[in-house]
């Protein structure tokens, strides 16, 4: 409803989206599948100092979202520049992924990396985790592999947030949850969807933190996005018609 044209909500899609969501959830339930849910280890009382830290995290996530989008787009350009044949691109990416996996000595950065998200929500990840996940994601998606960029985005945000929380000495688990949805808001430019995802996966107890960090990240992430077809109809800062494509 909000991903196609930023600044315009397509209410005509409300009924199809709601029904599709419930039908999808119902079918998944019948097949024995359930949605992801994460427990935040510690949620401090919201106040001035926590709010300031949350704003700082939102700013950092906005910067990271811009860098993440640039890296993914640049990886695609480089692949197309040096490997004209799409089959050769896939083979090159496969070789790079195997090499990176051997160098890092772990498969934690392969696939969606849900294990890394769980570790981040527990407050324990390596400092370079978010950078390595960005690298693995760029190598994979840039070559043309299609498996989704949403969960890798959540992983990068969660690991980055956990690290920021550790450095700030402020609930790494909560910062991981906030970083996860803040980066998602920054790269997709969908703040309402980001909030709904945060509530669904982490509950409502941290609602003030989610609201602040998503708002800051979305506003300051500029006109960059994962999807080149996305269009910014209105400015993020002013009630001004701009009608420009995502960078």
Key words describing this protein structure:
247 residues; mainly alpha; 3-stranded mixed beta sheet; 3 strands; 63% helix
Protein model, in words:
The radius of gyration is 18 Å and the shape is globular. The protein contains nine helices and three strands; from the N terminus they run βαααααααααββ. It is mostly helical. Helices cover 63% and strands 4% of the residues. The longest helix is centred in the N-terminal third of the chain and has 35 residues, at 48-82. The model has no long low-confidence stretch (mean pLDDT 94). It starts with a strand and ends with a strand. Strand 2 and strand 3 (241-245) form a beta hairpin. Helix 2 (48-82) packs across helix 7 and helix 6 (150-168) crosses helix 7. A three-stranded mixed β-sheet has the order 1-2-3, with no helix packed on it.
Secondary structure elements and pairings:
Layout: E1 5-6, H1 14-30, H2 48-82, H3 86-104, H4 114-121, H5 129-142, H6 150-168, H7 172-188, H8 191-202, H9 207-220, E2 231-234, E3 241-245
Helix pairs in contact: 2-5, 2-7, 2-9, 3-5, 4-6, 5-6, 6-7, 7-8, 7-9, 8-9
